[in-house]
Amino acid sequence: MNLAIKMCILIVFVFASFHLSLPLVNAVKSDENNPSVLVVYHPENGEVDEQNNRMLDILISHFTSDLTFKPIADVARADLKDVTHIFYYGYQSEHIPQTFQDVIRTFGGTFVALGENIEQLGDRFSFITQVSYENFTAITLAGTEDKVTSILPHQVKNVLISNESELLLIALDGEGNQYPLMVRKDSAYYFATSTIGPPLSPYLAEVLHEVFNIEHQETHPGYIRLEDVHPLVEAEKVVAIAKVLKDRNIPYMIAVIPVYIHPETQEEYHLSDSPDLLEALKYMQDNGGSIVLHGYTHQFRDSETGEGFEFWDVENNMPIYHEANEKVVKKSVSDFDSPKAFNQYIKKQQEFEKLYITKKLTRGINELVNYGLYPLAFEAPHYTMSQHGYAVTSEFFSTYVGQVQISDQDWEIMTIAPFITNPSFLNGMILLPETIGYVENSPLAVEKMLREANKYTVVRDGMVAGFYHPYLGVEGFITLLDSLEKIDGVEWIDLKQMKNKVKTGYVDITTEAGEVHVSVDRVGLYTSSFNYPLYHLKKVVKNLTWIMVGSGSLAVIVFINYIFFSRNKNRRYRKYRRGGRIG
């Protein structure tokens, strides 16, 4: 009987303990391979907060697709249900509401704090004591102090840490002083600066592997992109580079611009006007190359193809909300009676932008497919595009290549993802970032690219990707390739091996495991533009012409042979007759 009572008491105790710990259990319940992350921020900084949130989006979305951003004043206890990780970002000194402090007090998951206001986050971060602010000019992973990356001066929040904490990143000032840059104690992490983009982001990206404790293969995905291949590019130079890549069995990308517009005459040149280049592109597509649509004309207004911006009005530093010849009047929220009126104005502007981008991407995809070229990804000219533009692009492409713009106010505010990621602001598109730049017309260009590669190979699965303009010639390309192949752990990306989707109203392209599947509504495609069937008609006429020329040539050859042999036979007859050999 006593045993039975003891068992009942034990069961009640276990049951009660379970319910007492329920808030903590809820806090960490999630799919281990897809953690649930809540990013908390102060919204008072407007555009700056949006930019920093997008940088965090890039970094965190490498590990999970379950990501929520929430202003700190709006966070309630219910928001933490099933959340495994909280990221708090303090761009500058701010007051943390008591409501948030109360909410996080019982959170049992991983907590990552970045930047300012660490002293307001409760006992969990009591292992940190701020001392001062210091400047640093180098950074390294703890335990690899022999591998240091030099950077321009940045500010670190110099802190004292307890003996129980672990040092993950170290900042150095060039005078022998070291400062904790990222530390942890149990499941609490602190990053002691508010700078989260390059050049610090590769190091933060590497440590996030420890934060999420997710196994990632320690290799460096990479790609080489042949840039700005438009109808006036010399086919011979493109083919020479393609043959080098084929001989080395390296897959690659070709950033194709279907139409070149002359900046002075505004005359259009299509790939059909350059049959040698068109054949070269088909050869490349069949021998390791993958087509990337790099805009339709890569220009706006009277700018030259390859030099101009297509999806951003660089003269007015704004999205394409207007025709090229239209007078532009930029408006801000202060020009309207209410934020609602301003939002309605922006919505109307974005409707124009959507039509503009839709027209460009539809024409680009359809035109290439009509030639037998199949784009598998998209790269915006000069990497410039608004956030709304990315959303529109995601309706056509599942894969985006290059760097990304993280501001709708200034095209120059763009950033580099240190690894392959799937940030929510790309609306489902996978991002294959470019990390090491391109070969400039300089003897030190390749050396500069290798320095950039060293920064991103700090990340265990960091990206090594750059581009090359074919007009520079095959010799310079071989120099680049020789250097890149010496980087340990680089594995070249083959777009055809990835899952990609590209579509318009008449075209569907999918890839997987090396196979490219294309479905085309030919009737719809041909009726959408007379130029599409005209291209094939010209090909047929050209082939028939060659057949006719060939037939005529054959007839001439036969006739000449007949005359030759007939005269030769008659000559022998006369000779034999003179010799008395007839009969």
Q: Order of strands across the widest beta sheet?
A: 2-1-3-4-9-8-7-5-6
Number of helices: 13
Distance between the termini: 140 Å
Count the beta strands: 24
User: Under the CATH scheme, which architecture of the largest domain would be assigned?
Assistant: Alpha-Beta Barrel
User: Helix proportion of residues, in percent?
Assistant: 25-40%
Note the main sheet: 9 strands, mixed
* CATH fold assignment of the largest domain: TIM Barrel
Query: What would the principal axes of the Cα set say about the shape?
Result: globular
The CATH C-level name of the largest domain is Alpha Beta
How many domain modules? Answer: 3
Q: Approximately what portion of the residues adopt beta-strand conformation?
A: 15-25%
Quick recap of the structure?
The protein is α/β, with parallel strands linked by helices and about 575 residues long. It has helices spanning about 1-20, 20-30, 45-60, 100-105, 200-210, 235-245, 275-285, 340-370, 385-395, 445-455, 475-485, 520-530, 530-580; strands at about 35-40, 65-70, 85-90, 110-115, 130-140, 150-160, 165-170, 180-185, 190, 220-230, 250-255, 260, 270, 290-295, 375-380, 400, 405, 415, 430, 465-470, 490, 500-505, 505-510, 515-520. A nine-stranded mixed sheet has the order 2-1-3-4-9-8-7-5-6, sandwiched between helices. Strands 10, 11, 14, 15, 20 and 21 form a six-stranded parallel sheet that branches.
